[in-house]
Amino acid sequence: MKLKNVLIVVKDIEKAKRFYKELFGLHVVTDFGGNIIMTEGLVLQEQAVWERFLGKETELGGHDAELYFEEDNIDAFLLKLQRCDYDIEYINQCIEHDWGQRVIRMYDLDRHVIEIGESMEYVVKRFLKEGFSVEETAQKSQMPIEMVRELKEGMLKRQ
After folding, report:
1. Please, is 126 exposed, middle or buried when counting C-beta atoms within 10 Å of its C-beta (0-12, 13-18, 19+)?
2. Is the whole-model pTM more than 0.70?
C-alpha cells in the first residue's frame, strides 16, 4: 500500500486553486470540477462535494494537521507573501528553530495550517558556508555527521 494524495476541503475551489498555484507553484493535474488533483499530491475538494460524500456537515480550519512545504530561499518567499494579493494570516512569522531551520506557519484561505521550512540539506549548506566546521554543523543541525561530510564534499567539488 502507498499513500497517493492528501485531500483538504475548501469553501471555494477556484480561489484555493489560484492560491496554491500562485504561492506554492502547484499546478492542476486533473480537474473534476468540485475535486481537483494538483501536483505534489494535493487534492482540493469543495466543501459541498465532501459533505455529500460523507453525509455530514464539516467544519474547516482545525489545528490538527498541516501542509508542509520546503523552500530554500525563505527570504524570497517572504517577499512573495508581502506582495501577494492574499490577506495572509500568520501563525508565526519566520522563526529559526534551535537546529537552524527557518520556518513560517500560516493559514490558507480555509484556515488549514501551512508550514514552509528550509530543507535540512539547505540548512547544513548554509552553516558550512558561514564557516561552521563539519562537527559544529552536525551538532547544531542535529543531522548525521556522515550526511554533513557528504554535503561538504559535494560543495567542494562544485567550486
Report:
1. middle
2. yes
